[in-house]
Amino acid sequence: MLAVLNHEPGSEKLTPEMLSNAAGSTVNLAEVQTKLVSRGGDPEEAWEDALSAVHEPVPFTAEQARIAGNLVTQTRLLGLSLGDRACLALGLTLKAPVYTTDRSWKSLKLGIRIHVIR
Question: How many domains does the chain have?
């Protein structure tokens, strides 16, 4: 989400068509909101910006929490945060690909497609 909002390298790979179907965990929305407000952004504008990066905000469920917690054993050495694992948990529950700027995710074997955009 931040790559899109900040127009970071690789974000151009996320086409408008892809973004029109993008789902995002509410945990990741909270992360984006935190970063935008921490940088001095107006909280209301930051929230609108965060929401604009996804088509569908998906509430973080108990099942996703279980999956994210279990992923710690596979991701600890890669340094993945709770937000990272929440993203992966959503991908796993939706059986959908995930997109990241973190190359280390490519080494994960989780049964979903992981696209590294840069």
Answer: 1
pTM higher than the cut 0.85: yes
Mean local confidence (pLDDT), 50-66: 95
CATH code of residue 84? 3.40.50.1010
Give the residue among 91, 64, 69 at the shortest CA–CA distance from 80.
69
Residues 6+ apart with CB under 8 A from 83: 25, 27, 28, 30, 31
Compute φ and ψ for 114, nearest 5 degrees.
-120, 115
For 11, 42, 48, 50, 116, the CA distances from 45, given in Å and listed in that order, are 21, 5, 5, 9, 28
DSSP state of 22: -
Express each pLDDT in 18-35 by its tens digit: 888 999 999 999 999 999
The DSSP 8-state label assigned to residue 111 in this structure reads S
Q: What size, in residues, is the chain?
A: 118
What is the extent of the structural domain holding 60? 2-116
